[in-house]
Description:
Elements: H1 5-18, E1 25-33, E2 40-46, E3 55-62, E4 65-68, E5 76-81, E6 87-92, E7 101-106, E8 114-115, E9 122-128, E10 134-140, E11 179-185, E12 190-193, E13 200-206, E14 211-217, E15 229-234, E16 239-243, E17 248-254, E18 261-266, E19 277-281, E20 288-290, E21 296-302, E22 307-314, E23 317-324, E24 329-336, E25 340-341, E26 349-350, E27 356-362, E28 365-372, E29 377-381, H2 385-393, E30 396-403, E31 409-416, E32 423-429, H3 447-453, E33 457-462, H4 471-474, H5 485-498, E34 502-512, H6 514-525, E35 531-535, H7 541-547, H8 551-558, H9 568-571, E36 585-590, H10 599-610, E37 615-620, H11 632-647
Helix pairs in contact: 1-2, 1-11, 7-8
Pfam family, one: PD40
Protein name: Acyl-peptide hydrolase
Keywords: Acetylation, Hydrolase, Protease, Serine protease
Amino acid sequence: MRGSATWDLVEEYFRRLHEPVMGHPHRLLEPSCSADGSRIAVTGLVYDELAGLPRQACFLVDGADLRPLTGPSGSSRQPRFSPDGTTVAFLSDRTEAGRFQLYLLRTGRLGEAETTPAVPGTVEYCSWSPDGTKVLLGVAGLGADLASDQGSGTTYKPKEELPDWHPRVETGVRQESWRSLWIHDLAAGTTTRLSPEGLNIWEAVWLGPDAVVAVTSPAPDEGAWYTAVLSRLGLDGAVTELARSKVQLGCPAASPSGGRLAVVEAVCSDRGVVAGDLLVSAPGAALQRVDTGGVDVTSTQWIDADRLGILGIRGLETVAAVYDAVAGKITELWSSTDTSCGTRYPEAAWSADGRVVLVEEGYSAPQRVVVLGGERVELAGIGHSGTEYLLSVAGTAETVTWSAPDGLRIEGILCVPAGEGPFPLVVNIHGGPVWAYRNMWSMFSPSTPLLVAQGYAVLNPNPRGSSGRGQDFARLVFGEMGGEDTADFTSAIDALVERGIVDPARVGVIGGSYGGYMSAWLATQDRRWAAAVPVSPVTDWYSQHFTSNIPYFDALFLDGDPEVPGGKFHSRSPVAHASKVRTPCLNIAGALDRCTPPTQAQEFHQALLEHGVESQLVIYPREGHGVRAFPALIDFCTRVVDWFQKHMPARG
């Protein structure tokens, strides 16, 4: 691939996009603000060269400018202001690459950030106590599993000095798999463990000054997250279960006094990707479901004792709103289908007077920090000659809807190049299945605008099971992956062909994770596909169950048992239908992927070859769930463009 005409084209594409801001942030995330809203900080992703993953750095938003808060040594992320605004806590791996620890920066003083006692692991998140005297730390063991959203694989793990003949030994749960809670006391300068042995902490926040509320499980494996409960951990060490659910719980938040509690209950595909119903409790009362006006809530933060700031999605809209727990009323501050905020799901920060700070973006709108509530205030953005270049080649994005054969309305975002159709079409299927596309810069995919620049239309559909349409809609894929959702994609093609947008002879499919599964599955169910690119796919549910680190997921979403002959573990596996395939398939996986192991791509590849179908297998040795680092990303995009150009050329 390297040195080919397509490689040169793709490399030039990424260079023109990123080189104008080398050493400066090309993407912003994790917004934070002081209680009075006068100071705002963000995490920026920074390339110093087009190699590896970007480093992370913290920046203060100074009007239209971004001012470095931390130095260039290592990565730093998640800046968090103390309640009085005088100190910023942040996480950094400046001492040991890949191992994050807590640092404190006194905003009224000159000098370097203060170190804190190291914890035995890597810190994933931090939060201030309501009185500003302590910082809560969520700590993962060195070698704990990463979620699929994080790229799978494991957290940083020191290399073991073992001879090359030494076997790998597994006995089940590894000691380094656990996640725990620690508290740093600013006055004492000490950091001590809060959570007991044998309790895994997935996420946690303060519950008043003397307790925390956490999503917990008795085991640390990724599958245990699906049945995790909500627990109270007192600073005295007492643990009390507060709530459990038949589905999943996430995004806990508590008012400063600890009197009110909020949590999101949702059908979820992946840890950390939670969008669903809002549950709120009054002081001394049980959690109650709140009517959010059709918004699937993805982020929560108590503004004061009675007001809760929420972010979420409603269809293709991104929504920011405030819930008044006394009045029982939701007030929306902002909603948009043309722009959005956050990464996988919407996120923001709230000031004490109810303003919301977010990083707004859209397919045609480079990121900008915006303050909403009262008047709209636009602050620093990341527009530059690289973003101008992308806007000049990436076409436009528009909302499209169509009806599935059973009459269900399906939504999506169609990206089209300049000029008149019909265009060749690539259907880009999202992961999950419970996730959703929104109008985002590059559609949250490096390959989408690149394909559009080569003359392809790219459809980003939200089939049944996607978030943003309520829990009943999300449950439609429950036990039905590869069932009625199949027609959600094929009916989209029919609709776009009928509208004169798409050439029916040049239609391809690509997707990762669940999208990878569906890319392989669709090739077994319909011969209209000219080319398919399953990325990080599941192709054999039986072997997936016994080789993945999330076996609970497939049993849950297939509503089946791998030991039952003739069930969906067999009937919904693409490898079991390989003889029906006529579509050339480019099967891509990462060797470090523990969610959908690379053997899944290999099984489908070998099954296709056995039946005389053109197939390629590409496994990246340093990648996990998806391809993220340079130069592997250039290679990946080169192969994708070449595959579609070979089998359904856009030009020439």
